[in-house]
Amino acid sequence: MLPHARRLQPHEVDLSELDHHHEIAVIEIEPRSACELDCAHCDSKARRRLISIGLRRKPVHQVLDPSFATEVLRALANHEKVLASAVITIAGSGEPLASQHTPAIAAAARKAFPNSKLQLFTSGWGIESQQQMAERTPRELNTLWFSADRFHVDSIRRALKKSGQPSKPADAENYLTDRLAWANKYAHDHGVTFVVRAIIGRKSQYLYVANLVSKAREKSGVTDEIQISEAGMHPPASRLKERKDGLIYLRSDGRVTGTLE
Ligand code: SF4
């Protein structure tokens, strides 16, 4: 993280403090900070454990302001170290599709970076219908990534239980495959590349995901092959370090941070 990273006010977006020795090839945007799931492999779970035993303060739920995001993206587009072809990832520690501002933020990203590869990661949690999936998914995406594996099903099960809904394993699988089917249909209808992102270290894990995908394809009626991609356990920063790319992270609380070296 950059030593100079700090919270900016909307009227003072000046990225000179974020000067990098490397070109910035990746911009990550976090539309909201809260995730209602607690997947076992996710560092959000470790954070929650630290909070529960009092070793960390409970974070305030933040939602990224779209006007502020637009200003930052414009400033980034004019920054000499930021590549016009930067990959822009809408993800973060909260579910992006749960923020009503995500479509506006994606539109601002596309406007500022017409040649970027724009992608979004979702778990589908909280989306209640095909129509809602279509309304909340930004039109400008190149790739829609959907997280689906046993970890996500288990964590959906716990979240369903918490909210008083039926929470047998089959209920959680149904919940996930419905959202997977809606996302797949959306991607198919809008010419967006669709990829399922999963922890698949073992053959049994791969078969489990393949089964979820096949159920979703049946539900959606979309017969295109669905790509399944192994999710790495490492944070993006360590991957970027190997590639010597720079990254800018626009956080939901308004901080603009980066990685380099
Ligand atoms: S849905 Fe994503 S952000 Fe939320 S707990 Fe699971 S892996 Fe972490």
Outline the fold blueprint.
Elements: E1 6-7, E2 24-29, H1 43-52, H2 66-77, E3 82-90, H3 102-112, E4 117-122, H4 130-136, E5 143-147, H5 150-162, H6 169-189, E6 193-198, H7 203-220, E7 227-230, H8 236-243, E8 246-250, E9 255-259
Parallel strand pairs: 2-3, 2-8, 3-4, 4-5, 5-6, 6-7
Antiparallel strand pairs: 1-9, 8-9
Helix pairs in contact: 2-3, 5-6, 6-7
Bound molecules: iron/sulfur cluster.
Given the C-alpha coordinates, what overall shape results? globular
- Give the bound compounds: iron/sulfur cluster
Question: What top-tier CATH class fits best?
Answer: Alpha Beta
Q: Any idea what the CATH architecture is?
A: Alpha-Beta Barrel
* Total beta strands: 9
What is the overall pLDDT average? Answer: 85
Ends distance = 10 Å
* C-alpha-based Rg, rounded: 18 Å
What does this 3D model show about the protein?
This protein has a single domain (19-259), classed as TIM Barrel (Alpha-Beta Barrel). The chain has helices spanning 43-52, 66-77, 102-112, 130-136, 150-162, 169-189, 203-220, 236-243; strands at residues 6-7, 24-29, 82-90, 117-122, 143-147, 193-198, 227-230, 246-250, 255-259. A nine-stranded mixed β-sheet has the order 1-9-8-2-3-4-5-6-7. Strand 3 (82-90), helix 3 and strand 4 form a beta-alpha-beta unit. It is built from eight helices and nine strands. With 261 residues, the chain is α/β, with parallel strands linked by helices. Iron/sulfur cluster is lined by residues 35, 37-39, 42, 44, 93, 123, 147, 155.
